[in-house]
Amino acid sequence: MTYDSVEVLAERYGSAYRWLVTGAGMMGVLSMVLSMTTVNVAVPDVMGAFGIGQDKAQWMSSAYMACMTAGMVMNAWITGVLGERRTFISALALFSCGAILGGSAPNEDVLIFARVMQGFSAGVGQPLVMATIFSVFPAERRGSAMGVFGLGVVFAPAIGPTLGGLMIEYFSWRYVFFVALPFSLLAAILSSIFMATRPLPKTLPSFDWLGFILMCAGLFGLMTGLANGQREGWDSDPITFRLAVGAVSTVAFVLWELKVQKPLLDVRMFANREFAAAAVVAFIFGAGMLGSTYLVPVFVQTVQGFTPLLAGLMMMPAGIMLAVIFPTAGRMADALPPALMVMGGLLIFALGFHFMSDADVNTTFWTLAGITMMSRLGLGFINPSLNASALKALPPDRVRQGAGAANFIRQLGGAFGTILFVAFLETRTRFHAEALTATQDYANHTSDRLIGQVKVLLHVAGLPEQVQRAGALEFLGNVVQAQSVALAFQDTFLVVAGVALVALVPAWILSRSQRRDARAAAAHPAAAD
User: Fold this and answer.
1) pLDDT of residue 1
2) DSSP 8-state code for residue 139
3) Residue among 411, 390, 410, 384 at smallest CA distance from 402
């Protein structure tokens, strides 16, 4: 049996080969990133279909991102066993099975399991494509190649919510899961032709299985404890047990990674102050970016009454602007101090969500679109500069591990950010509901007039008197609940802005370190060389 190495394929297809394999990989990445963003506009429909709350529905997003981190740490080992072609096709197959299972799920548990399958396969597939593109291009053209990869990654979120809205508008929420299948099928066909393959190894390479188990136990304990705390009670035995298991497993994971020879995550890198500061910003960046990507479509559908299609269209200008600003921000990151770009981006992002915290049912479509564009503009400035800051802090022989660790931390931030923001949203909804309900007594003349007006309308409709009062009280209850949800979203958006401002502290530490290093390099140019 013959095996097609990169050299053989390059000779067979000539100079066009690098673009052919890039196209094959990017088609798969497009399907995976699409699936991460399209489902967010389907959250209210899924909640209605299965009768679940935000605490359950958010797992469609957070389970995907958490399992994506697990897939990332297994990527190198799986690729070492199966080779690039088999690994990528297997990841696409698992991803497609998850899409089919999610689209036909009979209940929320099956749906969440489907998202687990998709997230893990995306975690395996996306770094493989990045590494493949990096390896087939010469050193002087790798920047352009990474630009193509980055553009694909930001283009999918630009069209994802709108595409998801179209599926829900004209078919049903289940088709949101099926929309990525054609891209996956095409990617599998192309990668079977253009991706390299190799013989299976006679012995399996070593893998840090204990570290992987401890990492998964830590993620599972902490995430399920935080997600279910509001419903089951923060001081209940099951929640306390999950959080304790998660915390102990996380500490054990860090200690084990310090001891093992080939760690999943080289935690020693975090002893570097610059890298640690960049990692903290990356975690908060992931929380803000992916958490807000979940919250905003749910807000405009729940509070504003937007259709899924209108919610997707509202997000589209921000996505297109992000795709346009991405290469410009990359060039600016080369000309300006990276930490300065990060701090500016955080301020713009925080300002956008400060404005978002004033949004209510009367806020117009274009006002919401403009605010969303502002927040995404901030993210566009942060991303390239943050990556540059993290990797410049490391010696050349640790850049690849640093890039993997930075991606891992960012995805982890997205998973925990979504869970924590939704938990806060649920807590504040309950708080506002109780506070507003306490004011609905006979001394509240505004509510009394509202009940009277609704009773008049029901009387005109021909309903009997006993039904009129019951209907008026039910309407008042719905008004109180709607106002509670709107106020809770406003509080949550304010917290998102506050989290971005908190990230200014590690960004400032990063800036000081970079200025100190620059002064040292200027004072001792020979040593810097």
Assistant:
1) 45
2) G
3) 390
- Yes or no: say if 43 and 297 are a contact pair by the CB < 8 Å rule: yes
Among 251, 240, 259, 258, which Cα is nearest to 218's?
Answer: 251
pLDDT attached to residue 93:
93
Q: Which of 44, 19, 55, 36 is nearest to 425 (CA)?
A: 55
3-state SS, residue 243: helix
Would you call 206 helix, strand, or coil by DSSP?
coil
What the block records as the tokens of 500 is: 């971005």
Instruction: Tell me how far apart the alpha carbons of residues 416 and 81 are, in angstroms, rounded to a whole number.
Output: 31
Q: How many whole angstroms separate alpha carbon 373 and alpha carbon 325?
A: 11
How many Å apart are CA 251 and CA 175, to the nearest integer? Answer: 41
For residue 170, how many C-alpha atoms fall within 13 Å in the half-sphere facing its CB?
Answer: 6
Structure tokens belonging to residue 315 = 């997000």
Show the tokens assigned to 282: 């990356």
pLDDT in tens, 450-472: 777 777 787 777 777 777 777 87
| Percent helix / strand / coil, the chain, rounded to 5 | 85, 0, 15
What are φ and ψ of residue 92, in 5° steps?
-65, -40
Structure tokens at 204: 């399996």
Task: Give the residue among 105, 110, 92, 88 at the shortest CA–CA distance from 35.
Answer: 92
Q: What is the pTM of this model?
A: 0.79
Which parts of the chain register pLDDT below 70?
Answer: 1-3, 6, 139-155, 326-327, 330, 333-334, 384, 387-393, 396-401, 403, 513-529
The residue to which tokens 């007006």 are assigned: 453
- In this structure, the dihedral spanned by the alpha carbons of residues 170, 171, 177 and 183, taken in order and rounded to 10 degrees, is -60
**Residues 75, 123 contacting (CB under 8 angstroms):** yes
Block residue for tokens 């931390």? 409
Q: What is the C-alpha separation between 384 and 374, in angstroms, rounded?
A: 17
